[in-house]
Amino acid sequence: MKVLWDETVQGCSANAQRFQGTAPYPWLRIRDFIRPEVFPQLCAQLPSPELFENHIGKTRAHGQKNHDRLALQYRPSLDAQLSPLWRQFITELHSPAYLNFWRTMLGLRPRSPVILTMHWHYAPAGASVSPHTDARRKIGSHIFYCNTEDDWDESWGGQTLVLADDAGRWPRHSAPDFSDLREVAASRVLGNQSFLFAQTDHSWHAVKAVSCPPGAYRKVFIVVANRLSGQVLWRRIRGKDADGYRLAG
Question: Organism's domain of life (predicted)?
Fold first, then answer.
């Protein structure tokens, strides 16, 4: 069963130049990147929280507030614990078609290396993602929101916020508060939504604290596109992915 909806992929690609010119950095809300009939099945077959690492209270660099969540990094050794549908989805994300989608959206050359890493995040009540930019090895992120109306309410939050540093006061390795940046836009959580953005020195983004009931989780699956930097190459030589996780772990 095919997971990605080719019509949506092609429609986004046709508007790549518009995406690249979006301020304050390239971002795009996307509906139905996953085939509509497949999306509810993917959500129902998400990995068990028992597989996740607890990152709640984990200290971050540069004085930034904790990004509290349960986290699971994809690596090939995890395949046996994923459903066939999730394995198919990940296979399609590693396909030339999806890698070319990234190259088109970012205006890269046809043969430019694009190294993907993927992970799931489950965020409990009160969890937030403080304003930050990503590591320079990253060239963009594609966030898939994996909640449905059965387990989430849009009023609980969970939207990814596009933030702008209009005064240019905050270097990337710093810890601004929400009040220090202007909110430009927000993603949507429900309705087979995903959110694409390019990494720049000023691609500030965040998630305000979610107000879901105890036991509920904001669930996302994130595909990160990395450049083939010296760091990424060195990690690969040592048997690690671009994020530093052991591929055989």
Answer: Bacteria
What digits encode the pLDDT tens for the residues 74-107? Answer: 999 999 999 999 999 999 999 999 999 999 999 9
80 domain-assigned = yes
Determine the 3-state secondary structure of 162 from DSSP: strand
Tell me how many domains the chain contains.
Answer: 1
* Phi-psi domain of 108 (left: phi exceeds 0; alpha: psi -120 through 50; beta: other): beta
Q: Find the domain containing 173 and state its range.
A: 6-148+155-237
| pLDDT value, residue 220 | 98
Which residue type sits at 169? R
- The residue assigned the tokens 């992929």 is 9
Q: What gap in Å lies between CA 132 and CA 163, rounded to an integer?
A: 9
139 alpha carbon, distance to own chain's centre:
12
Confidence band, pLDDT 50/70/90 cuts, at residue 59 = low
φ, ψ (nearest 5 deg) of residue 43: -65, -40
pLDDT at 249: 67
DSSP string of 85-111?
HHHHHHHHHTSHHHHHHHHHHHT--TT
List the CATH number of the domain containing 104.
2.60.120.620
Q: How far is CA 18 from CA 11, 23, 94, 150, in A?
A: 12, 10, 25, 35
Separation CA 112–CA 123 (nearest Å): 34
At 217-231, the pLDDT tens digits run: 999 999 999 999 999
Which distant-in-sequence residues (6+ apart) come within 8 Å of 168 by Cβ? 202
